[in-house]
Amino acid sequence: MSKFTMSAGRWLAPVFLICVHLGGPALGAAPASQPAAPEVTAKDLDRAFERDTLQIATPDARLHRFNTWIADDDQRRQRGLMFIRQLRPDDSMLFIYPQPMTVAMWMKNTYVPLDILFVAADGKVIHIAQNTEPLSLKTIESGGIVLGVVELPAGTAARLKITPGAQVIHAALSAPQR
Fold this sequence. Notes:
Blueprint: E1 2-3, H1 6-21, H2 42-48, E2 50-57, E3 63-71, H3 74-79, E4 91-101, E5 104-106, E6 114-119, E7 125-129, E8 140-141, E9 146-153, H4 156-160, E10 167-169
Parallel strand pairs: 3-4
Antiparallel strand pairs: 1-5, 2-3, 2-10, 4-9, 5-8, 6-7, 6-9
């Protein structure tokens, strides 16, 4: 999953039209053969990302533990889970941003459907995009200011009853002060 800013989306359509006009494939032309996309495994991710654990406390008083890859810089956030073909039920990726902000994600080069949890600085889930469409360029917006994003295998949020208001527990996200 890659970070995608809304301002970039405004210029994608004109750039696409210019590329087609300047020598892109004609409408109705057979697509050119493209090299096969690389297949990324969990071991590949282990080499590129720090590995940690996170927990999610759900409103039904359950605590769910996940093994997570940490995407904590621009390069890792841009790479995300692109080209991965399989995730275990307890796999996740935690995107951490340098400061709270609104973010938008997309599924470009992401072959597995995901549940995407948008997480405020205090660890509270503010929005969930469930069962996202693989390989889609459609933007998936945070719906508010977040410090982190958690990606889980699709269906995990429904199965574990993770809803807005659930608490993500990780050192990069601080618990609310009492």
